[in-house]
Amino acid sequence: MTKVGVLGAQGRMGAEVCRAVEGADDMELVAAVDQGDPLDALTAAEVVVDFTHPGVVMDNLRWCVERGLHAVVGTTGFDPSRLDSVRSWLTEESSGNVVIAPNFGIGAVLMMHFAQKAAPFFESVEIVETHHPNKADAPSGTAYRTAELVAAARAEAGVAPSPDATTSGVEGARGADVDGVRVHAVRMSGAVAHQEVVLGGHGELFTIRHDSMNRESFMPGVLLAVRRVPELDRLTVGIEALLGL
Ligand SMILES: NC(=O)C1=CN([C@@H]2O[C@H](COP(=O)(O)OP(=O)(O)OC[C@H]3O[C@@H](n4cnc5c(N)ncnc54)[C@H](O)[C@@H]3O)[C@@H](O)[C@H]2O)C=CC1
Ligand SMILES: O=C(O)C1=N[C@H](C(=O)O)C[C@H](O)C1
């Protein structure tokens, strides 16, 4: 039985993780911690799952690493400099391993993978993500990571930047620029988590779309990461490797 602790246990995702862990035959929920609770209860765990807030996740993660606990992190906000900081903490033999994934949905991971594969074949690529209006960060971690992967694939293939003749307009109309890829964030009542990667070439548009209809959809990926994190090597970003991609 893997002993699991959950940080952010009263949140939308954290509560779902608690239910999923309690329903798994090979796991035991030993700590459910939320804002204001002492973290000490987590020392009973082998693996800590964090779904909290981009503003607090670094402190949480450092606390776990310093105690040799493995961590599975779904909280967003991990740019390259944050990932470098985490790598620098994981140098001690006594450190636990860490999985940080902007999205644990199997379909979402495949969407990112297919977007990365398709990106060099089209002149233009932009990303449109739609989320519930309670989301704190924009663009979403998934959109940010998709843009990074797409940009890296295009750079490696020597593809020119997406054409864009815009010289005037209202600020924000063209979205955010993530590594040269335009990302548009929609916040919409009724939405959960949705993303389209739109690619355009000569006389054709290719759209890769993923929809998360509920938060249960993320649980197979979270449980997979909890099972595998002890055997991984320090920091793993995304669950692509765990799925054999
Ligand atoms: N990787 C993935 O597959 C997914 C990632 N997310 C991300 O997970 C994060 C949380 O999302 P939601 O559950 O929707 O948010 P939420 O706001 O419903 O839940 C966050 C919880 O964390 C708690 N919290 C805040 N600071 C804390 C602290 N210092 N210690 C312990 N608990 C603390 C809050 O009280 C709240 O209960 C966001 O960054 C979101 O983007 C969300 C869905 C899927
Ligand atoms: O906040 C959410 O809800 C989600 N957050 C993650 C993100 O920012 O990509 C994953 C999913 O999109 C749901």
TrEMBL record:
Binding site for (S)-2,3,4,5-tetrahydrodipicolinate: 132, 141-142
MF (Gene Ontology): 4-hydroxy-tetrahydrodipicolinate reductase; NAD binding; NADP binding; oxidoreductase activity, acting on CH or CH2 groups, NAD or NADP as acceptor
Domain of life, source organism: Bacteria
Keywords: Amino-acid biosynthesis, Cytoplasm, Diaminopimelate biosynthesis, Lysine biosynthesis, NAD, NADP, Oxidoreductase
CDD domains: DHDPR_N
Main location per the UniProt record: cytoplasm
Any Pfam family matching the protein: DapB_N
SUPFAM superfamilies tied to this protein: Glyceraldehyde-3-phosphate dehydrogenase-like, C-terminal domain, NAD(P)-binding Rossmann-fold domains
Localization annotation: Cytoplasm
Active site: 131, 135
Domain Dihydrodipicolinate reductase N-terminal residues, every copy: 3-104
Domain Dihydrodipicolinate reductase C-terminal stretches: 107-231
GO biological process terms, semicolon-separated: diaminopimelate biosynthetic process; lysine biosynthetic process via diaminopimelate
Reactions catalysed according to its record: (S)-2,3,4,5-tetrahydrodipicolinate + NADP(+) + H2O = (2S,4S)-4-hydroxy-2,3,4,5-tetrahydrodipicolinate + NADPH + H(+); (S)-2,3,4,5-tetrahydrodipicolinate + NAD(+) + H2O = (2S,4S)-4-hydroxy-2,3,4,5-tetrahydrodipicolinate + NADH + H(+)
GO cellular component: cytosol
Chain positions recorded as NAD(+) binding sites: 8-13, 34, 74-76, 101-104
Pathway involvement of the protein, from the record: Amino-acid biosynthesis; L-lysine biosynthesis via DAP pathway; (S)-tetrahydrodipicolinate from L-aspartate: step 4/4
E.C. no: 1.17.1.8
Matches recorded under InterPro entries: DapB_C, DapB_N, DapB_N_CS, DHDPR_bac, NAD(P)-bd_dom_sf
HAMAP family recorded: DapB
Subunit structure as annotated in this protein's UniProt entry: Homotetramer.
Family affiliation: Belongs to the DapB family.
Reported function: Catalyzes the conversion of 4-hydroxy-tetrahydrodipicolinate (HTPA) to tetrahydrodipicolinate.
Protein name from the UniProt record: 4-hydroxy-tetrahydrodipicolinate reductase
Gene: dapB
